Amino acid sequence: MGDAQTDYKHAVCLIAPHPTKIGGCAIESARIAANKVLEAASGVPYLLKVAVYPHEIVREHRLMGFAGADRLSQGMTKSFGKAKSCAARVGANQAILVVYVNEDGVDVAKASLKRASKKLPVPCKILVREA
Q1: Which residues pair with 10 in a beta bridge?
Q2: Helix (H) and strand (E) counts for the chain?
Q3: Which residues pair with 99 in a beta bridge?
Q4: Domains of the chain from N-terminus onward
Q5: What is the spatial distance between Cα 62 and Cα 75, in angstroms, rounded to a whole number?
Q6: Distance (Å, whole) CA 13 – CA 19
Q7: Which one of 47, 48, 68, 99 is CB 3.0 to 4.6 Å from 1, fit for a cystine?
Q8: Minimal CA–CA distance to 115: which of 4, 10, 12?
């Protein structure tokens, strides 16, 4: 999201410090939160990229939890359960979101990624590097 035609000098990255799985809804929520802050800072050109993709299917076997459930629930009919959602497998020190900005937009990018990190189930750190 943003201006893909501009050459940027800095890349501000939201990094997961340890391996985890992040749900697709959490990634989308973080993207929306970061983009909202970046759009509010008018006049700052940016490019927001989501670096992970939720490709892993999360499956669930729902059990009945009431009296007499053993008669009704005969175990898993299919060994993998039903598809519930998607998740992205994130490695240690892997970037989740990357914002490309120039020198004047680094503080805005840091603020946007700080707000986006609140939507994720893992504590994140923000790293600024040269693009």
Answers
A1: 101, 130
A2: 3, 7
A3: 12, 48
A4: 10-57+82-130 (3.90.1170.10)
A5: 10
A6: 16
A7: 48
A8: 12
d(Cα 83, Cα 58) in Å, to the nearest integer? 6
Q: Which residues lie closer than 8 Å to 75 by C-beta, 6 or more apart?
A: none
Q: What confidence category does residue 75 fall into, taking pLDDT thresholds of 50, 70 and 90?
A: low
Share of the chain above pLDDT 70, in %: 85
Q: What angle do CA 91, 22, 122 make, to 5 degrees?
A: 75
Let me know: does 20 contact 121? Beta carbons within 8 Å: yes
Does this model's pTM top 0.90? My answer is no
pLDDT given at position 82? 79
Residue 24, pLDDT above cutoff 80 = yes
Q: Kindly write down the DSSP assignment for every residue of 2-23, as one continuous string.
A: B-SSS--SEEEEEEESS-EEEE
